[in-house]
Design brief:
The chain has about 300 residues and is mostly helical. It has 16 helices and no strands. Helix 1 packs across helix 10 and helix 2 packs antiparallel against helix 7. The radius of gyration is 19 Å and the shape is globular.
Length: about 300
């Protein structure tokens, strides 16, 4: 089942990303007064949870530097209310999908995929999944395409919540997790540091902590995991898969595989349209884990 769980993430992640990175999404946020990229991004991610404080935002968005989050929260809530942001996010997503997918946006295939995605999300328990729970509280749009997009957002955040829980349980903090990704070859170190907002001193201190715990090798400009570091990374990924497997269990493996197959052409179109910026490189994270062996 773990391959299906990861493949479900592979097709829901691009749907999630375009809701704040496409030109249409940016335009929708600008129209309600959110002009800077941090304002647009953090408002888009957080609005479903309401007008949360800085401390709550940092907790929900594990991985971002508190000082970076502070560039937007709580200031954004003095510019626009959360419900208006949710509505703008929906408008931006709809306009983006209509441009990229054209006639297929509300096709019979979309209707079929939406039926499976709705069955996946309707019976889920959101205990311990705050970001997914917030998205689940967003009102259901009227069109099948937007309903599918909303379900994909729920499913993506469901996995994201599981990932951060697994990361914290493994004793890895909100900056160390990115350095482990970089050391694993998943994404470039400079990109990860830039998009998550950690300053140089915080970043270098996290490297030192990981080396002192024997999770990264000492010396050299290149980051490299030790055997223990690779084991911790694998532990986190397996725990993430386990913690986000419930949607697959809800509908079964056959219908999950059907949903993934239906969505592949739309994901390819999103990737080809280049609307999710540097995060297209997240494809490098979409690697199947090594098969488990019985010891």
């Amino acid at each position: 089942m773990s391959v299906l769980v990861r493949n479900l993430w592979r097709v829901t992640e691009p749907f999630h990303q375009l809701a704040y990175r496409s030109p249409e999404a940016v335009g929708a946020y600008q129209a309600i007064g959110l002009q800077s990229p941090p304002h647009q991004y953090f408002a888009s991610r957080l609005a479903a949870a309401g007008e949360v404080s800085h401390g709550v935002a940092v907790s929900l968005l594990f991985g971002f530097a508190p000082s970076y989050v502070a560039q937007a929260v709580p200031e954004i809530w003095g510019i626009v209310d959360a419900r208006t942001v949710v509505d703008a996010r929906t408008l931006g997503a709809d306009a983006t999908f209509r441009r990229i997918l054209g006639d297929s946006w509300n096709s019979t295939e979309i209707v079929r995929a939406n039926a499976i995605a709705q069955d996946m999300t309707t019976g889920l328990s959101f205990a311990g999944k705050p970001m997914a729970a917030a998205q689940n509280d967003v009102p259901q749009p009227s069109s099948p395409g937007l309903q599918l997009w909303r379900a994909c957002t729920i499913l993506r955040e469901f996995r994201g919540d599981a990932h951060w829980a697994a990361t914290a349980a493994a004793g890895i903090d909100a900056v160390e997790c990115h350095i482990l990704h970089a050391a694993d070859g998943a994404m470039p170190e400079d990109l990860l540091q830039r998009v998550t907002g950690w300053d140089d001193s915080e970043w270098e201190a996290a490297k030192a902590r990981l080396r002192s715990r024997g999770l990264m090798k000492n010396g050299g400009a290149e980051l490299e995991l030790t055997a223990d570091g690779a084991e911790v990374k694998l532990l986190i990924e397996r725990a993430t898969d386990s913690g986000s497997a419930a949607p697959v269990s809800e509908v079964g493996e056959k219908r999950t595989a059907e949903l993934i197959q239906l969505m592949k052409p739309w994901v390819s179109a999103i990737m080809d349209a280049d609307v999710i910026g540097a995060w297209k490189m997240r494809e490098q994270l979409w690697r199947d884990l090594p098969a488990e062996t019985n010891v």
